[in-house]
C-alpha cells in the first residue's frame, strides 16, 4: 500500500506516486530476431543494444560479485566488486575505457567489503567516494588513482551505535575478531553516498541502522535522520540515494527502500515528501538529462521520465528471478538479453547505460543507445 503523498504543492511533480504507472507500463523485454542480430531492449525513443560482459578483466584478475559503476568526465568507467576477504592483494576497483578495455586497477584496502561507489568533481579535480559494509565498515574518499584522502568509520557521536563499533573494522582486519558475527540492526554498514549542493555528503547505512548520516565535504560528521521503521521517512533497507539532478526540479532526495520495493522522496533535511512504488527491490538512482534510471535487484532496470512515469523496463526478467528460476551463481541459467540482479547502473556521456550485476562471477552489461 502506497504511503500518502505530501500536500506541498510545489513538490507535487517532483516525485509522483506511480504504482499504477509502473504496473501499467507496456512489457518490455530483450529480443533477438536471429542469431546474427543484436539483442535489443526498450521501446520508442528508448531502445538499446544489449552487450553482456562488456568490460573484460585481464587474465590475472577475476570478478568477485560486481557492485557499482561510475563514469568520469573523460569517459573512463570505474567498476568495483566486493572482493574476496582472503585475497588481500587483489584490486577492488577496475578502470575501463569507453570501449570496455581494461586500463588500470587499485583499491586492495577495501577487499571483502567494497559496495557503493560515487564520483564528484571538486575545484576541477574528480574524486571517488566509497561506502563499504562489513568487514570494512567505512566510507572513504580517494583520488582517481586510488590514493586514500580520508576514511571514516562509524559516527559514534550520533549516539546510534554500540561501544567499539568504530574500531571493530580494524579488529576484524587484524584477526582479533572473527569476520562473522558482526551483524545486527544497530551496526554500521554503509551502502551508498549522495552529494548535496552545498558540498555535504549523505551516507545511507542501508545494511545496518537505516539512518542517513550527513557529513561535511571533508568527512566531518554533522547529523543523522531517518532510521528503521514503517512510517514515512523511515526505512527497511535504505540501500541507495541520490539528489534530484534533472533541470528545473526541486531539491528532492530519492532514497531506495529496497526491502519494501519503493523509493521515498525526502527533502535534503529528511522530511518525507512522497513515495514511488511498484519496483522490484530498487537498489539505486541515476540521472541523465530528463531521465531517471533505477536498477532493480530482481531482474530489471527501469527508465522514468521527468515526472517519474515509466518509459521502459530494460532486460526485464523479474518474474523468473522472483520465481527462483534464475541462480546468481549459475550463468547457464541467465537468458541472453535479460538481467539477473542489477545492483547499480549509470549513464555515460552519450546516454548509454552501464549496468553492474550482483552475481558471483560478476557481469557488466552495456546498453548501447540505438535511437
From TrEMBL:
Record-annotated membrane-spanning stretches: none
Report keywords, A-Z: Signal
Q: Share an example GO biological-process annotation for this protein.
A: proteasome-mediated ubiquitin-dependent protein catabolic process
Q: Is Signal there in the keyword field?
A: yes
Which InterPro entries does the record match to this protein? Answer: 6-blade_b-propeller_TolB-like, TAT_signal, TAT_signal_bac_arc, TRIM-NHL_E3_ligases
The signal peptide here is: 1-30
**Which GO terms fall under molecular function for this chain's record?**
ubiquitin protein ligase activity; zinc ion binding
Is Signal included in the keywords of this UniProt record?
Answer: yes
Specify the protein name. Answer: NHL repeat protein
Amino acid at each position: 500500500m502506497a504511503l500518502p503523498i505530501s500536500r506541498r504543492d510545489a513538490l507535487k511533480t517532483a516525485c509522483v506516486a506511480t504504482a499504477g504507472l509502473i504496473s501499467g507500463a507496456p512489457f518490455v523485454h530483450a529480443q533477438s530476431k536471429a542469431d546474427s542480430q543484436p539483442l535489443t531492449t526498450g521501446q520508442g525513443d528508448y531502445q538499446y543494444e544489449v552487450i553482456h560482459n562488456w568490460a573484460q578483466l585481464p587474465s590475472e584478475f577475476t570478478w568477485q560479485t560486481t557492485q557499482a559503476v561510475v563514469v568520469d568526465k573523460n569517459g573512463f568507467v570505474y567498476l568495483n566488486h566486493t572482493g574476496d576477504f582472503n585475497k588481500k592483494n587483489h584490486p577492488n576497483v577496475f578502470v575501463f575505457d569507453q570501449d570496455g578495455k581494461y586500463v588500470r586497477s587499485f583499491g586492495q584496502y577495501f577487499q571483502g567489503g567494497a559496495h557503493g561507489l560515487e564520483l564528484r568533481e571538486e575545484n576541477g579535480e574528480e574524486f571517488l567516494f566509497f561506502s563499504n559494509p562489513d568487514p570494512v565498515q567505512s566510507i572513504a574518499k580517494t583520488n582517481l588513482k586510488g590514493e586514500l584522502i580520508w576514511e571514516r568509520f562509524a559516527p559514534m557521536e550520533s549516539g546510534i551505535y554500540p561501544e567499539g563499533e568504530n574500531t571493530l573494522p580494524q579488529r576484524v582486519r587484524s584477526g582479533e575478531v572473527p569476520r562473522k558475527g558482526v551483524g545486527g540492526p544497530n551496526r554500521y554498514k554503509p551502502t551508498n553516498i549522495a552529494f548535496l549542493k552545498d558540498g555535504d555528503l549523505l551516507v545511507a547505512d542501508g545494511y545496518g541502522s537505516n539512518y542517513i548520516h550527513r557529513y561535511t565535504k571533508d568527512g566531518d560528521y554533522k547529523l543523522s535522520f531517518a532510521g528503521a521503521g514503517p512510517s514515512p521517512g523511515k526505512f527497511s533497507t535504505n540501500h541507495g540515494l541520490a539528489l534530484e539532478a534533472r533541470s528545473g526540479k526541486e531539491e528532492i532526495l530519492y532514497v531506495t527502500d529496497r526491502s519494501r520495493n519503493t523509493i521515498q522522496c525526502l527533502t535534503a533535511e529528511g522530511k518525507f515528501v512522497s513515495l514511488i512504488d511498484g519496483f522490484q527491490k530498487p537498489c539505486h538512482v541515476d540521472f541523465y538529462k530528463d531521465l531517471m534510471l533505477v536498477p532493480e535487484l530482481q531482474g530489471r532496470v527501469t527508465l522514468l521520465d521527468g515526472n517519474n512515469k515509466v518509459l521502459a523496463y530494460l532486460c526485464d526478467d523479474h518474474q523468473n528471478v522472483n520465481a527462483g528460476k534464475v541462480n546468481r551463481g549459475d550463468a547457464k541459467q541467465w537468458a541472453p538479453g535479460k538481467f539477473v540482479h542489477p545492483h547499480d547502473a549509470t549513464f555515460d556521456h552519450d546516454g548509454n547505460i552501464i549496468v553492474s550485476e550482483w552475481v558471483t562471477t560478476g557481469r557488466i552489461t552495456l546498453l548501447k543507445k540505438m535511437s
